[in-house]
């Protein structure tokens, strides 16, 4: 790996954890870096331990890329995904990491919920090969009720990527009684249909596998009594999007 002007002391990032053989966060097998800190408080979050900013292991982009390159043969058809938490809370760190990955021929993706205003993370949005964009809810007030913030940041990112002609995968969690509702899904599908940058919609079934973390942190898990989606629910949701020629 060659020397880079982008690796500077101020860009140290707070790291929550690493997955070296990820198959669920973008195309192919990927090295997934989970950053610490998130401005959203999603009621279904399965990693509330990533919320608190300024915690975790501090690392430099160059050291992380050295580790990534140890797995180059495994991720050759995939790449690197920066997730969280919310990676855009650390935009300088993310930008330097994205550029170092590009220098080393690695495909990059950022998984973001749009909780950070576009003007603070524009360079990262422009630099990443792929954005995995979590649209929590299309209606701003519903989004605020679900996450603590509206969806303006997420939609700004989507519009920026459309302007650039750069790929986006939409992620949407299906929560029975909240987001898993036919009319809401139809509105979301109709909204997304004109976007040429949207290459795929991932409909993610709500689950409770992270509920124990809420208990450990002493945070009430308000969806404890919410059922997980049935196979019929998931089939209905997928059909809404495929009927509009949106890959899921």
UniProtKB/TrEMBL annotation:
It catalyses: glycyl-[formate C-acetyltransferase] + reduced [flavodoxin] + S-adenosyl-L-methionine = glycin-2-yl radical-[formate C-acetyltransferase] + semiquinone [flavodoxin] + 5'-deoxyadenosine + L-methionine + H(+). It is found in: Cytoplasm. It is an enzyme of class 1 (oxidoreductase). Coiled coil: none annotated. InterPro entries: Aldolase_TIM, Organic_radical-activating, Organic_radical_activase, PFL1_activating, Radical_activat_CS, rSAM, rSAM_sf. Its cofactor is [4Fe-4S] cluster. PANTHER family: PYRUVATE FORMATE-LYASE 1-ACTIVATING ENZYME, PYRUVATE FORMATE-LYASE-ACTIVATING ENZYME. Belongs to the organic radical-activating enzymes family. This is Pyruvate formate-lyase-activating enzyme.
């Amino acid at each position: 790996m060659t020397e880079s002007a982008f690796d500077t002391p101020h860009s140290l990032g707070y790291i929550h954890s690493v997955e070296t053989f990820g198959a669920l966060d973008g195309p192919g097998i990927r090295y997934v870096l989970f950053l610490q800190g998130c401005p959203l408080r999603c009621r279904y979050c399965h990693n509330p331990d990533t919320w608190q900013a300024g915690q975790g292991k501090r690392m430099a982009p160059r050291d992380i890329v050295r580790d990534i390159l140890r797995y180059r043969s495994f991720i050759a058809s995939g790449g690197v995904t920066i997730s969280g938490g919310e990676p855009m809370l650390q935009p300088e760190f993310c930008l330097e990491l994205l550029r170092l990955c590009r220098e080393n021929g690695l495909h990059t993706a950022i998984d973001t919920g749009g909780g950070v205003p576009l003007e603070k993370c524009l360079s990262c949005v422009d630099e990443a090969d792929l954005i995995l964009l979590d649209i929590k809810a299309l209606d701003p007030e519903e989004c605020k009720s679900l996450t603590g913030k509206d969806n303006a940041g997420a939609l700004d990112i989507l519009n920026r990527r459309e302007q650039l002609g750069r790929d986006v995968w939409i992620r949407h969690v299906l929560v029975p009684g909240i987001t898993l509702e036919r009319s809401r899904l139809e509105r979301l599908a109709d909204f997304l249909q004109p976007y040429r940058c949207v290459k795929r919609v991932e409909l993610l079934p709500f689950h409770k596998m992270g509920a124990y973390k809420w208990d450990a942190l002493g945070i009430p898990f308000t969806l404890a009594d919410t059922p997980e989606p049935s196979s019929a629910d998931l089939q209905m949701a997928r059909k809404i999007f495929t009927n509009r020629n949106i890959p899921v």
